[in-house]
Amino acid sequence: MEQCPCGTGLAYTDCCEPVIKGARLAETAEALMRSRYSAYVKVETEYIFESTHPKHREGYDHIGTKEWAESAQWHGLEIVAVKDGGSADTTGEVEFVARFSEKGEPKVHHELGLFKKEKEAWFFTDGKPVTQKPIVRTSPKIGRNDPCICGSGQKYKKCCIDKQ
Q1: Within 10 A of 74 (CB to CB), how many other CB atoms are there?
Q2: 61 and 68 in contact (C-beta within 8 Å)?
């Protein structure tokens, strides 16, 4: 039994393969996202094109997509968050991280995928890169010359800062 590349733990023949081969539709936006990842792994690039919403296919590079899928080594898919995209919804968002290597160099693709459902079929419409969110300080900053927070009476730079 070959496990599905999408990471569900199910057999490929029971998970993404029937969706990629057209035997059944993806029931959710997440299922479509998983099947699209599996299609890259399996170099089923025609499915990538067909699962893209018709209004968003302009400029699709069939040759470049196939070459990239063939040359990359795929390491896994992580679904970070899902908003809507259920069987009763018409739109959905799936934040995901795809890990792969190109020419031996590890890469990470973090994206918010946008999906639309039309006539019972889910389609990928757009993807937006997800960047690291800025760190927001919730407590006041301790300066190096401030008294140490441990109560020793020493300056922070001579006490706890040296122990980190």
Answers
A1: 16
A2: no
The dihedral over CA atoms of 47, 49, 52, 57, expressed in degrees to the nearest 10, equals -170
6: which 2 tokens?
């999408």
The per-residue pLDDT for 163 is 53
Q: What is the pLDDT of residue 135?
A: 74
Q: Which amino acid is at 21?
A: K
Distance CA 60, CA 151 (A): 63
Amino acid 149: pLDDT: 79
CB atoms within 10 A of CB 116: 19
3-state secondary structure the chain: CCECCCCCCCECCCCCHHHHCCCCCCCCHHHHHHHHHHHHHCCCHHHHHHCECHHHCCCCCHHHHHHHHHHCEEEEEEEEEEEECCCCCCEEEEEEEEEEEECCEEEEEEEEEEEEEECCEEEEEEEEECCCCCCCCCCCCCCCCCECCCCCCCEHHHCHHHHC
Q: Global pTM?
A: 0.81
Q: In sequence order, what are the residues at sequence separation of 6 or more whose Cβ sits closer than 8 angstroms to the Cβ of residue 62?
A: 45, 49
